[in-house]
Amino acid sequence: MPRRVDDFRGLTQHSRVRLLHAVQRNPGRQLKELAEEAGLRLSTTRDHLTVLEEEGLIVAEPLSTGSRGRPPMGFSPVRAVEESAPARRRVIEARRRGEQLRRLNPELHPSGHSGPALEESALHQLDTLYEHLDDAGLEPEMDEAELTVGLIPCLYEDMIDAERPAVCAMHATLVRDQLEQAGGPVRLRRLRPFVGPRRCELILGLINEAESADLGSDGFDSFDGSDSSEGIDSDRSDAELESYALAARRAAVASSG
């Protein structure tokens, strides 16, 4: 598909990746705190946060201090489309384009393949996730029958060794947010970083509303999706995801000679 005019810019610079991860770890943090953690000037941090907000990745909200004057702003990740007009627009446009593609090519409809029948809300989630990954330049290879997504290339490959931030944790959180914003039964289940020298995979699954309410976000056993003996649960800690991704990358590089 041709590249759209609203491609993500926010994930193309390492400083923005660090800032987004800092916001994800501790929602509600203020500009000065984020600048200090990222090692950036206030003006530069403000510019980066503006880009992330314009792309629907974070939202700025006033914090109550109990005192007079303009309240400080706290930055949090976008969890629901009601929180961000850009995020809402992306979800709506992704749904529209996905429905249009399925009308043009019936094989893309759930009745056109041998995998599990996906309800419309699940398809809309996959539409949103695909466009998010495509706009980020990850060239997603989505298998709706197996509920897996291959990612080529890894945008953050050079960051794994250079700075060792928990970039896999950052992107896992971002993928979960995209799926939740679209609304439906699809959840991120596992990550398989560096299954090849430059390839990662996402393992998705389906969960119904009753199971979600009973088990919470960590109830992976309730998923009815693709299983994998490899990879790591997406809800592991930053340190665990970072360590796993680093070991997987080094193993992939070694096996490629």
Quickly count the helices: 9
Report the end-to-end length measured between terminal Cα atoms: 34 Å
Total number of β-strand segments? 7
Largest sheet: 5 strands, antiparallel
Q: What sort of overall outline do the alpha carbons produce when their principal axes are compared?
A: globular
In sequence order, what are the helices and strands, one letter per element?
Answer: HHHEEHHEEHHEEHEH
Topology:
Elements: H1 14-25, H2 31-38, H3 42-54, E1 58-62, E2 73-77, H4 85-104, H5 120-135, E3 141-143, E4 148-151, H6 157-162, H7 167-182, E5 186-196, E6 199-206, H8 209-215, E7 232-233, H9 238-255
Antiparallel strand pairs: 1-2, 3-4, 4-6, 5-6, 5-7
Helix pairs in contact: 1-2, 1-3, 1-7, 2-3, 4-5, 5-7, 7-9
Give a quick set of tags describing it.
7 strands, 257 residues, two-stranded antiparallel ribbon, 15% strand, 9 helices, single chain
Descriptive report:
With 257 residues, the protein is α+β, with helices and mostly antiparallel strands. Helix content is 45%, strand content 15%. It contains 9 helices and 7 strands. The protein has helices at 14-25, 31-38, 42-54, 85-104, 120-135, 157-162, 167-182, 209-215, 238-255; strands at residues 58-62, 73-77, 141-143, 148-151, 186-196, 199-206, 232-233. The strands form 2 sheets. A 5-stranded antiparallel sheet has the order 3-4-6-5-7. A hairpin with a 4-residue loop joins strand 3 (141-143) and strand 4 (148-151). Helix 5 crosses helix 7. Residues 212-229 have low confidence and may be disordered.
